[in-house]
Every structure is written in structure tokens, then in C-alpha cells.
């Protein structure tokens, strides 16, 4: 987990300014079809942070917990991320992730083996869920900003 935490810290040091440098108009641009704009992709990452916050905290209270799945198209459309200020979205993403990093760093290692069942899929450990959160974050940040050059 040490490498995961270090990578998370590095992302939160380097990515926010790169996101802030994207113009609001560019962030609002829809690439075509049903593909998301940068605003909607960042909104999706905000949803991911919010959902995983619940999972990271609640999973520490029991050895195994079940959570609902995430209906990404519904969540992104319902919250109208496409019409939100880019600067506000960047700030919200940053603050949610700073708090998630704090939660992960404060989590006792004994909790990492607790199991989470999400949307009826096979159980995964809390540690695997945290690692997957960072993988998902990397994937979408690369979409937003191009290939990231951070230590992993």
C-alpha cells in the first residue's frame, strides 16, 4: 500500500494545476456521439470519489459489506456536470480526493482484508478496492490530460 499512497499523493500534487489550466470551453466540448466532455469525465471521477468514500469508511466497520453498483450514465446526466463551472469541478475533485487520501492513510492495515461486494459482483478486499480506485483514476486522468508522468 505504500506505493499506492505515494502515487495518490503525487497525483494530488501534480494534477490539479494541469486540470486548472484547461479552459472552461475546452472542458465543455463534447467529442461527439455519446462520448463525455472533460467536464463529464471529471464529474464521473467526482462520483467515483464520493462512492468510494462511503466504501472505504463503511467497510472498516465489518468484515464484509455489500454496496449498490454505480449507474454512471444516470449519475453524470442527473448531476448535469456538463453545465457546471470547470473551476468548481476541479476544486471539488481535489478536495474529495485529499480527504480520501487522508482516510486511506489513517486506515489501520488490519482493515485492508475486509471484503466489499459491489453490485453483486465477486467480493474484493478493501486493499484491492483502494488500488483499483487509483487505477481507475489514472485511466480517466490520462483521458483528460494525456499520458501522465508520475511515479507509480
Tell me the CATH superfamily: dinb family like domain
Derived from helix and strand composition plus strand pairing, the structural class reads: mainly alpha
Termini separation: 11 Å
Determine the number of helices (DSSP H or I, runs of at least 4 residues). Answer: 6
Flag low-confidence runs: none
**Coarse morphology:** globular
Helix content: 55-70%
- At CATH level 2, the architecture is Up-down Bundle
| Count of all domains | 1
Q: What composes the largest sheet?
A: 3 strands, mixed
Order the strands across the largest sheet as they lie in space. Answer: 1-2-3
User: CATH topology, which one?
Assistant: Four Helix Bundle (Hemerythrin (Met), subunit A)
Mean pLDDT: 93
Describe the fold and architecture:
This protein has 152 residues and is mainly α. The chain has a single domain (2-145), classed as dinb family like domain (Four Helix Bundle (Hemerythrin (Met), subunit A)). The chain has six helices and three strands; from the N terminus they run H-H-H-E-H-H-E-E-H. The chain has helices spanning 2-20, 24-28, 38-58, 72-78, 86-106, 126-145, and strands spanning 64-67, 115-118, 124-125. It has a three-stranded mixed β-sheet. A hairpin with a 5-residue loop joins strand 2 (115-118) and strand 3. Helix 1 (2-20) packs antiparallel against helix 5 (86-106). The relative contact order is 0.21.
Amino acid at each position: 500500500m505504500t506505493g499506492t499512497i505515494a502515487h495518490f499523493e503525487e497525483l494530488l500534487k501534480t494534477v490539479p494545476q494541469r486540470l486548472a489550466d484547461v479552459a472552461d470551453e475546452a472542458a465543455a466540448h463534447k467529442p461527439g456521439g455519446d462520448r463525455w466532455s472533460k467536464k463529464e469525465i471529471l464529474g464521473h471521477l467526482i462520483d467515483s470519489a464520493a462512492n468510494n468514500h462511503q466504501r472505504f469508511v463503511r467497510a472498516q466497520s465489518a468484515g464484509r459489506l455489500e454496496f449498490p453498483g454505480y449507474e454512471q450514465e444516470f449519475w453524470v446526466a442527473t448531476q448535469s456536470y456538463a453545465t457546471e463551472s470547470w473551476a468548481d469541478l476541479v476544486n471539488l475533485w481535489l478536495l474529495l480526493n485529499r480527504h480520501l487520501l487522508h482516510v486511506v492513510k489513517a486506515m489501520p492495515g488490519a482493515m485492508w482484508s475486509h471484503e466489499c461486494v459491489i453490485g453483486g459482483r465477486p467480493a474484493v478486499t478493501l486493499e484491492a478496492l483502494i488500488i483499483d480506485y487509483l487505477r481507475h483514476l489514472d485511466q480517466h486522468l490520462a483521458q483528460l490530460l494525456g499520458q501522465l508522468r508520475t511515479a507509480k
